[in-house]
Design brief:
The structure holds 2 protein chains of 2 kinds. Chain A has no helices and 11 strands. By secondary structure, chain A is mainly beta. Chain A is globular. By secondary structure, chain B is mostly beta strands. Chain B contains no helices and 11 strands. In chain B, the strands form 2 sheets. In chain B, strands 2, 4, 5, 6, 9, 10 and 11 form a 7-stranded mixed sheet that branches. A 4-stranded antiparallel sheet of chain B has the order 1-3-8-7, with no helix packed on it. Chain B is globular. The relative contact order of chain B is 0.34. The chains are: A mainly beta, B mainly beta. Chains A and B meet through strand 5 and strand 10 of A and strand 4, strand 5, strand 9 and strand 10 of B.
Chain lengths: 117, 107
């Protein structure tokens, strides 16, 4: 059974940093593109970032480019999102997702990031 | 970035009735169109991909159609468990865009 479990969400002050993790199980982690998608409170879904299977190619939404870094540890089946220079509009539930042919097949339960003073 | 526009924003449907949701792309996306269902407090669930292919385990009452710029998600006979927000999504090689969602309410 495919499982994605996010962690690391917290309350952080504007300008601060946070590192999210996503532990994957039930599939060959290194074979898949992995993504982060976020959802602000009461709002819709927004794609944040993507990483290919070997970690060599990254893509970012313009809103997070230069501030967020996606990475993975295939030996530990874990995806990461390092978030720096956090702003109030980064407040959201962050979902880890596995994609196949452009569709998000599996999702974690999400982890809440709140940016506030 | 291709803008995806969903309508209506909210749809109130009685159990057993048909629900039709729309998604329009700002330019042609061929059949690269995906639908998700999200219930309150839950992660999204993949329903339809490639515009019309049901994901594993999705009931046959859910169907998708369309190509190019106009797409439809139809729930043929709405069940009480079908309430929630439905999102369409497009992807190209390096960008993923969601519509703003349609909330389906049980009348």
């Amino acid at each position: 059974e495919v499982q994605l479990v996010e962690s690391g969400g917290d309350l952080v002050q504007p300008g601060g940093s946070l590192r999210l993790s996503c532990a994957a199980s039930g599939f060959t982690f290194s074979n898949y593109y992995m993504h982060w998608v976020r959802q602000a409170p009461g709002k819709g879904l927004v794609w944040v970032s993507r990483l290919n299977g070997d970690g060599g190619r990254t893509d970012y939404a313009d809103s997070v480019k230069g501030r967020f870094t996606i990475s993975r540890d295939n030996a530990k089946n874990t995806l990461f999102l390092q978030m720096n220079s956090l702003r109030a509009d980064d407040t959201a539930i962050y979902y880890c997702t596995r994609s196949s042919n452009g569709r998000f097949e599996y999702w974690g339960q999400g982890t809440l990031v709140t940016v506030s003073s | 970035e291709i803008v995806m526009t969903q309508s209506p924003a909210t749809l109130s449907v009685s159990p057993g009735e048909r629900a039709t949701l729309y998604c329009r792309a700002g330019q042609s996306v061929s059949n690269n169109l995906v639908w998700y269902q999200q219930k309150p407090g839950q992660a999204p669930r993949l329903l339809i991909y490639d515009a019309s292919t049901r994901a594993t385990g999705v009931p046959a009452r859910f169907s998708g159609s369309g190509s190019g710029t106009e797409f439809t998600l139809t729930i043929s006979s709405l069940q009480s468990e079908d309430f929630g927000v439905y999102y369409c999504q497009h992807h190209d090689d390096w960008w993923w865009t969601f519509g703003q969602g349609t909330k389906v309410e049980i009348k």
